[in-house]
Amino acid sequence: MRGVIAGGLTALALCGPAFAGPLIDGNLADWGVTVGDGNSSNFSSPVVADVIKLYTTHEDNNDQAGDSGFLGPHAGGQNYDVEFMGVAVDSARLYIAIITGQRPDNGLARFSPGDIRIIANNGSVYGVEVGGGPGGAAGAGLLTEDGGALGSTYSLNGNGFTVGHADSPRAVGSIWKDPNWLLDPIASAAPVQMANSGGTAVGTADFAYTRNADPSTQHAVIELSIDRGVFVGATALDIYWAPSCNNDVLEVNDDLPARVPEPGTLGTLAAGLLALRWVRRRR
Fold this sequence. Notes:
Distance between the termini: 66 Å
Strand order of the largest sheet: 1-16-15-5-6-9-12
Number of domains: 1
């Protein structure tokens, strides 16, 4: 099942206002989203302060624990659900928030998260390593993975069940341009995980992947932000994420406004211009 939201954004002048998007901490309260079990989540009216535009899409919200042993849209149980994707843009960064049943502590017991795939309209394809680990008991508690931890590569059988795990050489939160992709084993054979070879490292996202604070929660949150300078030459992005079995898919198509350099970049530029002026005055 796929939900798509598309729209255009007005370009900003380089002298436009400064923005500060959501804090990347796995808590989506600053997205205006309530995450709760027993169908108590609220994804209907997300609002993020100080961003230019917010796109959202969501589908399953049938919070039934466990799995049914059958994979397909709206099937498989909470452990396979993808429930919400939000994409926000400010003048310098791209923000992504995902709510799913693919918890980072249960990866080997059939429930393996895929990597985030971003297709630019200039032909480049980017991947963000999500990780997830080898899995563990359902009550293993809170697990947060920040950039630097090893990612994960999962092997699946023909029914989409996870049958193996290996550490990926790609660090969690790392961003890769044009990597090789592994396909899900079910009929659609969509690219869902980055392979362990191919592509060029182009940056690291500010990244968090965690269960809700309550150890009994049925949800996980993937939240990240990326410097938009990574997407050189792109004016629109197609962003999607799915479990590595591709049971459900969420997708947002985002037209990008003109990018404004971050304050550090602007400061460097200003210093360079002042130095150039000083050299010219000496001459």
